Amino acid sequence: MARVYNFSAGPSMLPVEVLKEAAEEMLDYNGTGMGVMEMSHRSKAFAEIIESAEQDLRDLMNIPDNYKVLFVQGGASQQFAAIPMNLMKNRVADYIVTGQWAKKAYEEACKYGKCNKIASSEDKTFSYIPDCSDLPISDDADYVYICHNNTIYGTTFKKLPNTKGKLLVADMSSDILSQPVNVSDYGLIYFGVQKNVGPAGVVVVIIREDLITDDVLEGTPTMLKYKTQADAASLYNTPNAYGIYICGKVFKHLKKLGGLEKMKEINEKKAKILYDFLDSSKLFKGTVVKEDRSLMNVPFVTGSDELDAKFVKEATEAGFVNLKGHRSVGGMRASIYNAMPIEGVEKLVEFMKKFEADNA
Ligand SMILES: *Cc1c(COP(=O)(O)O)cnc(C)c1O
């Protein structure tokens, strides 16, 4: 069996250890005589799976007791609507638009109230994070929204915006668990798990308890009301049980590796290998400003569409797959999430050096 180095932006690589464990338990989970896919979500075995997944996530992220953890479905995109429906008490929200995902969230929220785009980096193809130290935060804003790591463009917030006391809401789909997070800085954090945690189909919402109320916008679907999910401990209806089970295994795996401080150290080391090469290369160059570079998604170009295509083709043949950049940026993008081993990045850089020499 040959595993490739999969640089996909998502769904993406999972730790081999986790996949092997899941394979072993496919037919018989823990002596139950059935696999987790076949199991009632009301069973004792599954209760233990979801409860320990939540506890392990709480341990990893140091989630304070006054925050709830919800496992929901509908993708991160569903939260673009759920957030305004649940949090827009004044029907006003401020959005910082730093990429396509933030833009989509902004456009969706506009359906439910008055949305203000208080900062944007669209003028330069989202290649930087705007200065957010003194933004025109609306007096009556229910929350300020950010996409913490911009998967497509490869930028990230190194410093949180000054929300002037307003609630901060963050999409952390593509950098959750890559480094420690001070959860108390946020009213709500959510992430689709398929980038840096598990298989597609699970979204985790970490929300401060006082924000979970019956006071939601009229017409909010029962399933999208956080209170429904919180009151039912994420079991209002049938959850993505298998997805939650794999996420739980990844949480345990990260704890074993040494937690999020350790992941940050590894991720910084890994990203530095690639960025240092891009900064020294005569052929390849990064597409975003240095200060705002993501640890997870690294877009780069050669400057020639033809060479980009040649590179992607030859890299694929050499076992470095899914390096083609997003259609809105072009070029290449290497997503180097938690599960990408350091040698994957080292070997990619070796390959890039060789390609550069061959195409000089
Ligand atoms: C991938 C992604 C999304 C969309 O996720 P879906 O689960 O496909 O809806 C949203 N936000 C960010 C930051 C992403 O990377």
How would you explain this protein's 3D organization?
- The chain is of the alpha/beta class.
- The protein folds into 2 domains: 5-13 and 259-358, Aspartate Aminotransferase, domain 1, CATH 3.90.1150; 16-256, Aspartate Aminotransferase, domain 2 (3-Layer(aba) Sandwich).
- The chain contains 9 helices and 14 strands.
- The mean pLDDT is 97.
- Pyridoxal-5'-phosphate (PLP) binds next to helix 3.
* Overall CATH architecture of the largest domain: 3-Layer(aba) Sandwich
Overall helicity: 25-40%
Give the beta-strand count.
Answer: 14
Outline: globular
Spatial sequence of strands, sheet with the most strands: 2-10-9-8-5-3-4
State the CATH topology of the largest domain. Aspartate Aminotransferase, domain 2
Portion in strands? 15-25%
Helices and strands, in order, run as EHHEHEHEEEEEEEHHHEEHEEH
Q: List the ions, cofactors and other small molecules found in this model.
A: pyridoxal-5'-phosphate
Provide the CATH superfamily of the largest domain. Type I PLP-dependent aspartate aminotransferase-like (Major domain)
* Structural class computed from helices and strand pairing: alpha/beta
CATH class of the largest domain: Alpha Beta
Separate helix tally: 9
Alpha carbon gap, first and last residue: 35 Å
Q: What's the helix and strand layout?
A:
Elements: E1 5-6, H1 16-24, H2 44-61, E2 67-72, H3 75-87, E3 92-97, H4 100-109, E4 114-120, E5 144-147, E6 149-150, E7 155-156, E8 168-171, E9 188-192, E10 203-208, H5 226-231, H6 241-257, H7 259-280, E11 285-286, E12 297-301, H8 305-317, E13 320-321, E14 332-335, H9 342-358
Parallel strand pairs: 1-13, 3-4, 3-5, 5-8, 8-9
Antiparallel strand pairs: 2-10, 6-7, 9-10, 11-12, 12-14
Helix pairs in contact: 1-6, 2-6, 3-4, 6-7, 7-9
The protein binds pyridoxal-5'-phosphate.
Residues 10, 75-77, 101, 147, 151, 171, 173-174, 192, 195 line the site of pyridoxal-5'-phosphate (PLP).
